[in-house]
Every structure is written in structure tokens, then in C-alpha cells.
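Section 5.1 Outputs to date
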Amino acid sequence: MPVDALVLMGRIEARADALAPLGLKPVDFEANGHRFGTHLPSGPGGATTVPGVYVAGNVTDPMATVIAAVAAGVSTAGMLNMDLVMEDAA
């Protein structure tokens, strides 16, 4: 069958094996009803379900561009710093 273009997309898998012993395992990442791969879910500022463990960048959002992944890292670092300051103050 002749075609003008063929578009393929590989799956984007979160490389988070080092976090598996903590109970953090990648889950499916979907956008607009399409499964793109896996990611580690996180809350505001990169917080995970494990206290004191934060994630940022493409491991949380496989569709993030480099600039967005870097920005997420900066935001997560700020949140982590705030949590450490609050812990010291307590």
C-alpha cells in the first residue's frame, strides 16, 4: 500500500528500578486515551507516596520536553528544601 508518510512512536518507559525496593513502581501513562508508556505518579512538588522521596522530570511526565523536565526538577528541589526547613523548625 503506497503511503506519503508513516509515523511510529515507541513506548516511553520510566527507568525507576532503583526505587522499586521502596515500593515505587511505574504505572501506565495515558494522555487523550492513548497509552504512551509508564511513569511514577507524584503529588505537588514531586512528592511520592514514600515520605522523603521526591521525583521529577520525565520519570513523572514522559511527554515533558527538556525545558519542562528541568523546570520540574527546580520546582521539586524547592519543595524538598522547604520540607527540610520545616522539619528542622519543628
